[in-house]
Amino acid sequence: MLTRVTHDLTMAEAARGPGGSRVDLLVVANMVERGARVLDVGCGDGELLRLLETRGVDGRGIELSREGVNECVAKGLAVVQGDADTDLEDYPDDAFDFVILSQTLQATRQPRVVLEHMLRIGRHAIVSFPNFGHWRIRLQVALGGHMPHTDNLPYAWYETPNIHFCSIKDFRQLCRVSNAKMEEAVAMNAWGRRMRLKMPWWFWNLFAEQAVFLLSRRG
Question: Domain containing 21 — which CATH number?
């Protein structure tokens, strides 16, 4: 049975929680068991990996940008350069306990293929993404007639790395076709206020600015 949990998040992407970590990364880290083997896909500068290491996690990372890889290696993190769209197929089945894709799903060319590989090589997958169904985004498109620009989607349409925007509703559909079981979900609003636990999915899709899902393979 799916358990839904909510967490506070301030409107700025760089919001920090106790210890200075981004609040959305704290949500992800809290889903990972201590001592687990973890692969962070699109790990950026390694902030999540460093947070996980403080919790006794055996973390590895894969990052597309050379700058990100260099920064991670300088911090002593086990990170290699690679592309989520093409390189996950090289990992063996059940190589990790958790495979994480944080704020990167919308930048992949083949989101379904990436998610299916994550569920193949890990017992669990954790995916976070900005919710394109948020009411502010709908309003910008409907009334402004232009592609949206928000704290979580800060790029102009002609320079954005994001190529597959999705809403919470879209992601739930992706989970169904990918044979993914939703174990836990976290919705975070734009004002740092706690969203109600028992609100229906359409409410989350309309008012959540970001979402984090903990997934597993269906038997």
Answer: 3.40.50.150
Nearest to 99 by CA among 107, 109, 87: 87
CA-CA distance, 161 to 106, in Å (whole number)?
A: 8
Q: How far apart are CA 219 and CA 215, in angstroms?
A: 12
Phi, psi values for residue 109, rounded to 5°: -80, -30
If you search the block for the tokens 């559909």, which residue do you land on? 173
Average pLDDT, the chain: 85
Location of structure tokens 């900005």: 130
Confidence at residue 40, expressed as pLDDT on a 0 to 100 scale: 98
Cα torsion angle, 72, 62, 148, 17, sign:
negative
Asked if residues 9 and 15 have their Cβ atoms less than 8 Å apart, the reply is yes
pTM for the whole structure: 0.85
* Percent of the chain residues past pLDDT 70, beyond the cut: 84
**Token code pair at residue 70:** 């260099």
Residue span of the structural domain in which 27 resides: 3-217
- What does the pLDDT read at residue 183? 96
What is the total count of domains within the chain? 1
Q: Taking phi first (over 0 means left), then psi (-120 to 50 degrees means alpha), and beta for anything else, what does residue 137 get?
A: alpha
Which range, of 68-77, 107-116, 164-173, 188-197, averages the lowest pLDDT?
188-197
Interacting residues of 9 by C-beta distance below 8 A, sequence separation 6+:
15, 23, 24, 188, 189, 190, 192, 209, 210
